[in-house]
Amino acid sequence: MLRSLLPALSLALVLIAIAWLNPRAISYFGFSLMLNLAIPIALATIAQMFVIAGNELDLSIGTFVGFVGCVTATWLKDAPLLGVVILLGSIGVYALLGALIHLRNLPSIVVTLGMSFVWQGMAILILPKPGGKAPDWLLALMAFKPPFIPFPIIAALLIAAVVHFGLMRTSYGVILRGSGGNSAALKRAGWSLLRTKIALFALTGLFGVLSGMALIGITTSADANIGNGYTLLSIAGVILGGGEFVGGRVSPIGAVIGALTLALAASPLLTFMHIPPDWQVAANGAILIIVLAARVLISRRER
Amino acid sequence: MRKIFVLGALAAMLAAGTALADTSGKKIAFSNNYAGNSWRQAMLDSYAIVTKKAVADKVVGAADVFTTADKEVPTQAAQVQNLILQGYDAIVINAASPDALNGAIKQACDAGIVVVSFDGIVTEPCAYRVVVDFKDMGKQEVEQMAKFQPKGGNLLEIRGLAGTSIDDAIHAGILEGVAAHPEFKIVGSVTGDWDQTTAQKAVATILPSLPDVVGVVDQGGDGYGAAQAFAAAGKPRPTIIMGNRQDELQWWKEQKEKDGYKTWSASIAPGVSTLAFWVAQQVLDGRTDVPHDLLVPYLAFTQDDFEAALPKIPKGGVASHEYTQEDAVAAIKANIK
């Protein structure tokens, strides 16, 4: 019980701290500003969550998001059809990676670490120097201002709800999680582990694409290095959100909350605390360690 | 009656000239995306020296520094958005990307915040840019090289951090210089990331495959590493362009004392952060004639004057220059066409 509440609790704590430090931030305008960059992080975290559900790790999601960003800011605007084909193709590459990892029994860490350099290299090839521009429809979407509730909050709720339904409430979602929980049993029951692995990796690719597009919709322009930090953020988000590295134990709602917490703790909280510049980088790390350590302590007590 | 009074006051203010508004209550934030090398440390030091005095003298109300934990664009975009929420009047920024922060910069401008970028500039038109002519610096490297190596020959190029605008501009300048001096030919190119260790490794790796090299054109922070790599490989010492780092100038001095070694050194002065600060202050002061693009010179040292500068540079540091309010006024004036 405490375990499933923990992600929400840490988010509330961070929000209270922010409200105390800077009351101005708790407003429609404030939430729009503070949370809009959390949306791509939430999407990347969901992407990471799918591979973690299958007991794998994706170390390439950050550079993949950067690659998608570069495609979005160039081809998707100038030649939409080609752009869509490339993005779909990259999801296909992810699916193939899943197949490769399963068939050759390779450690996903090694494969995806290698792929991270491939994505980075391709991103630099597409955009040797920062630039490009997001398609207008994407800019309009990410700048959307609905009445009363800021767009990032609606987007976060939507992402959490859709993925929660798909992974936790459908029968194939159970199979997908089962491939991480007890693959031997699943195999004996006649399910193809190859197919589940491909599905999980393809879903990772899909959400990686969404993350990259959302990011470019906010920043308006791309940079080959834009997503590099997302790899570790996404892993931390999944764990903070109540997921486990093994056993297929993941929580989409937790992952989204975890991503929001990380985004808020790392940047607004830190900025509002007025820490001397020499200590800011260390303080950022300290906040992350405290938040993650609290989660580990509580989940350990439960066992 | 009242209207006339207001108009009269307005006219008096306009007549009074430059200092229209009082900036003593204004808060200026510095958004910095990276602090992990000697250049950035010198940049922060210079900034601290100048802004502390400005706050003490009540020129501005506050000048806080914010450094992001990683070099990432989204982190800095989030930071800029938080500074908007904090209610700063101006943001001085060394940006992680010239384009990808434009969304956040536009939001800041829309909130009435003055944004002044330098070094890593932003292209959003509403922001101000304090630009060092990196392209000219790259070109000048080849020009200087032509003086030291009049016969020409093979050059090795050391690039900076891939995908950045600074690397791109210096590289373009070097290519332009080589086009103007056909006696030179770039036979190899490595990535040094403006870092001595990285440069040394990269140069050491490519050296065995290169023909004889007469000169190294680079981007600063990589010259000493290149020199070490050449020495370790037992290759003849080429003319290596330096980048104002203490270790580079120290090595140059040693070589000069040994056999009169000649070269040239140039880099952007880290203290340009203070120039950006003063430009922000001038805009907050109500000046409306400040051009959005301000071109400022890079800091160069020649055979004659580098030894005088060397003792002033901290060990492991880089040559800097702290700008004053007058410097900023002069720079603005020089850029008004």
Relevant terms:
heterodimer, A: 303 residues, 0% strand, B: 337 residues, Rossmann fold, 12 strands
Topology:
The complex is a heterodimer of chains A (303) and B (337).
Chain A: H1 2-21, H2 28-36, H3 38-53, H4 61-73, H5 75-78, H6 80-103, H7 108-126, H8 136-142, H9 151-169, H10 171-181, H11 183-188, H12 193-219, H13 230-240, H14 252-266, H15 268-273, H16 277-302
Helix pairs in contact in A: 1-14, 1-16, 3-9, 3-12, 3-13, 3-14, 4-7, 4-12, 4-13, 6-12, 8-12, 9-10, 9-14, 13-14
Chain B: H1 2-16, E1 27-32, H2 38-56, E2 62-67, H3 73-86, E3 90-94, H4 102-110, E4 114-118, E5 128-132, H5 134-148, E6 153-159, H6 165-180, E7 184-191, H7 196-206, E8 215-217, H8 223-232, E9 239-240, H9 246-259, E10 265-267, H10 272-284, E11 293-296, E12 299-301, H11 306-309, H12 325-335
Helix pairs in contact in B: 2-10, 3-4, 5-6, 7-8, 10-12
Structure description:
The complex is a heterodimer of chains A (303) and B (337). Chain A has 303 residues and is an all-alpha fold. Chain A has one domain. Helix content of chain A is 77%, strand content 0%. Chain A contains 16 helices and no strands. Chain A has helices at 2-21, 28-36, 38-53, 61-73, 75-78, 80-103, 108-126, 136-142, 151-169, 171-181, 183-188, 193-219, 230-240, 252-266, 268-273, 277-302. In chain A, helix 3 (38-53) packs across helix 13 (230-240), helix 4 packs parallel to helix 7 and helix 9 packs across helix 10. The longest helix of chain A is centred in the last third of the chain and has 27 residues, at 193-219. Chain A is globular. Chain A starts with a helix and ends with a helix. Chain B is α/β, with parallel strands linked by helices and 337 residues long. Chain B folds into two domains: 22-126 and 269-299 and 319-335, 3-Layer(aba) Sandwich (Rossmann fold), CATH 3.40.50.2300; 134-267, Response regulator (Rossmann fold), CATH 3.40.50. Helix content of chain B is 45%, strand content 17%. Chain B is built from twelve helices and twelve strands. Chain B has helices spanning 2-16, 38-56, 73-86, 102-110, 134-148, 165-180, 196-206, 223-232, 246-259, 272-284, 306-309, 325-335; strands at 27-32, 62-67, 90-94, 114-118, 128-132, 153-159, 184-191, 215-217, 239-240, 265-267, 293-296, 299-301. In chain B, strands 2-1-3-4-5-11 form a six-stranded parallel beta sheet, sandwiched between helices. Chain B has a four-stranded parallel beta sheet with strand order 7-6-8-9. A two-stranded antiparallel ribbon of chain B has the order 10-12. Chain A binds chain B through residues 22, 24-25, 29-30, 33-34, 36-37, 40-41, 124, 127-132, 215, 218-230, 263, 266-268, 271-272, 274, 277, 280-281, 284-285, and chain B through 32, 35, 44, 64-75, 77-79, 81-87, 96-104, 106-107, 123, 162-165, 168.
